[in-house]
Amino acid sequence: MEFTQSLRSKAAELNRTIVLPEAADPRMLEAAGILRDQQVARIILLGNEERIAADLSAAGIDSGELTVIDPVLSTYKTDFARTYHEMRKHKGMTEDEAAAALQDPLFFGAMLVDKGMADGMVAGAVNSTGNVLRASFQIIGTAPGTTVVSSCFVMVNPDWQFGENGMIVFGDCAVNPQPDAAQLADIAIATAQTARALCGFDPKVAMLSYSTLGSGSGDDVDKVVEATQAVRERAPELIVDGPLQLDAAIVPKIGASKAPDSPVAGHANVVIFPDLDAGNIGYKLVQRLAGAEAVGPVMQGLAKGVNDLSRGCSVDDIVNVVAITALQTV
């Protein structure tokens, strides 16, 4: 699709270095070859060098310009283990435990990013989200002023009259089960920033609910009201409104009827779901029933770029998420 091609082109201009710690997976190797050939990013593969070389050869992928590092044998391992021990010794971690942990490609990859030896990391084709995030939290940490790590998807359908240029950004659809009002505000601000960076438009953020500006009541509505006010206070430059029902947020005629004075209603290009149930179900409904491309999940809130893949990801998914990760370094 045009959007994903634009992501790859923009990433190519940056020439960033991205770590792929799951090099035993054939999808990762195929993606690495594409990323190299299209010059989307420079790639570091983590794992046993002989095995990776053999797997690349068997798959007919040229190993040229693909850097391979074995965490078990690397000359970096002593320094990385020492650094990790300093980070975690207040939690009771021993030097031996730190050294053992750094043999895990996820932790080794996160340390490459933290040390500035790579610009970002993409994993999750083999590992669970929890494992990817654990390594990222413990070594890279969260961005200044951020209380929560979240995610978003760019939903793309060129035939849409909704959103902007056939795109709507959905958050949070993958990480936080029950965000409180303050966390929901963090998610909204981070998702707006992602939308601006990846999609190139000025975000118009709808805080979603079953209520439109007081048409319903309850604790869940109150949470969205509080979160919307927090976004306005923390990011006064951001165009945001809520609570809004989904149809009032994205359909101009309904937005004009239900919320005529809203700066967002009917024209939202970023929608923030009140919890993970709604977000995860929502993006999958739009993907499967509306035929939209779901680009992501894009992780937000970490100090440096790390993104988590679905274990059912395709090679194209990996290439696109690497491009996204490169763009998050700007």
How would you describe this structure to a colleague?
The structure is a single chain. The chain folds into two domains: 2-141 and 303-327, 3-Layer(aba) Sandwich (Rossmann fold); 150-294, Rossmann fold. Helices cover 45% and strands 17% of the residues. It has helices at residues 2-14, 26-37, 49-58, 77-88, 95-101, 105-114, 129-139, 181-199, 219-234, 246-250, 252-258, 276-289, 315-327, and strands spanning 17-20, 42-46, 66-69, 120-123, 150-156, 167-171, 204-208, 239-244, 270-272, 293-300, 305-308. It is globular. The protein starts with a helix and ends with a helix.
SSE arrangement:
Elements: H1 2-14, E1 17-20, H2 26-37, E2 42-46, H3 49-58, E3 66-69, H4 77-88, H5 95-101, H6 105-114, E4 120-123, H7 129-139, E5 150-156, E6 167-171, H8 181-199, E7 204-208, H9 219-234, E8 239-244, H10 246-250, H11 252-258, E9 270-272, H12 276-289, E10 293-300, E11 305-308, H13 315-327
Parallel strand pairs: 1-2, 1-4, 2-3, 4-11, 6-9, 7-8, 7-9
Antiparallel strand pairs: 5-6, 5-10
Q: Please, how many helices? A: 13
Overall pLDDT: 95
Helix share bin? 40-55%
Instruction: Calculate Rg over CA atoms.
Output: 21 Å
Quantity of strands, as a count = 11
CATH class of the largest domain: Alpha Beta
Number of domain modules = 2
Architecture per CATH nomenclature, i.e. the level-2 architecture of the largest domain: 3-Layer(aba) Sandwich
Terminal-residue CA separation:
23 Å
User: Strands across the major sheet, in which order?
Assistant: 8-7-9-6-5-10
